[in-house]
Amino acid sequence: MALEDKVRDIIVEQLGVNADQVKPEASFIEDLGADSLDTVELVMAFEEEFGQEIPDQDAEKLTTVGAVIEYLKGKNIGD
Amino acid sequence: MDKRRVVITGMGVVSPLGSDLETIWKRLTTGYSGARMITRFDASNMPTHFACEVIEFDVDAFIPKKEQRRMDAFCHYAVAAAKMAMKDSGLDLAQEDLFRCGCTVSSGIGGLQTLETQHSILRDKGPDRCSPFMIPQMIINMCAGLIAIDMKFKGPNFGVVSACATAAHSIGEAQRLIERGDADVMLAGGTEATICPLGIGGFSAMRALSTRNDDPTKASRPFDKDRDGFVMGEGSAVVVLEDLEHARKRGARIWCEVAGFGMTCDANHITAPAEGGEGAARAMVMAMKDAGVTPADIDYINAHGTSTELNDKFETAAIKTAMGPDRAYKVMVSSSKSMTGHLLGAAAGMETVVCALSMAKGVVTPTINYTTPDPECDLDYVPNTPRDFKIRACLNNSLGFGGHNASLCLKRVD
To answer: Least packed by Cβ within 10 Å: which of A37, B175, B283, B313?
Structure first.
């Protein structure tokens, strides 16, 4: 499964949204109805799935779907 | 000015006897036991292998998937029971002043399943993997918080906690909030979801649970000589309490009146009841006084009746003290826990619903599995078969670890 698909599935599962809402520009809080606790849990789910620690200072910047995908790609995940 | 009167206008239940009032009533009057082998987890290494699990409950019908994931089971049950109670009441919230609507639905133990799961994560994966929802998921007051969020109730709201007397204190406190004019509508009652390894393990360690593993449906036998402990139940029962005038103005169906409330403490021992049930007796006397009735007016007592050696003996003694030696033998006493198991913090909610249904239907529900009399328990326990009787007023007793005693006096409203 491509990185983008895995990320989308996690978001769908965690936030209870439809897959077609999970666009690269979608903001977790503004567009996908997440609150601050959801975003903490979401980052934990990414860490689990990809075996990649995401420090808090990085996690704070991951506010959109696209930002997460770019960040993980930058860590050479999904190549 | 006369005290405001408080009535029950709606009821909702998620229970081991089913999750709608008609089904539950049918089972209460046909001697159905909710006990069965535990399906939630492998209990084969526990001293007790059975419990009264919630049946016929579809959480998806009440709570969206995303919200479900951030709630413990005790909140699933409570939110669902609250929604059913509101529906049963016929209240139209668009017509209500939501600042005068509140909630005291609570739990005896809270999110034990969440604690169990998250502790395993802490141990196996470290603190970084603990859920950010762990704390809001397990704290007891969250069921009242979640119900308020769902209903947009902005009035009084908090969690009343007194172990197995929780729902009685919840209903009693809510009654008083309405009585003194702080609210017009309150959701009250209890919820519990402790059929999990820590729950069964913890109560087993106290030797509180029946170990009749070869015959679970006969295990809960309150007041019977061969009783050997309680049977763990789970679920939620929530009632809508309403100012009588408010209810009459909208033409509501009235189940019964919550006419009196008494609460005391044994101040004696963390788990054992006081000798002779003196604390429980005082709670019953207070509830009758609060309701303006005497023992002669009480036709029925829904006992705490857990099926433990000490509870049943001392509660019997308490009833004799409170009702007087003559009336004690004339009043009907039964334990719903013979059928439902012990719903802990939800028990008094469940039993308030039983009392209300009994008054509405003109039938007293039995104590099942009663076969061998115990000389220390010699009252009329309505053994095994229901009895036709138009109850005028009844008491609903609850006794909690910590020595908490609560008694509600419920009256029929004609």
So the answer is: A37
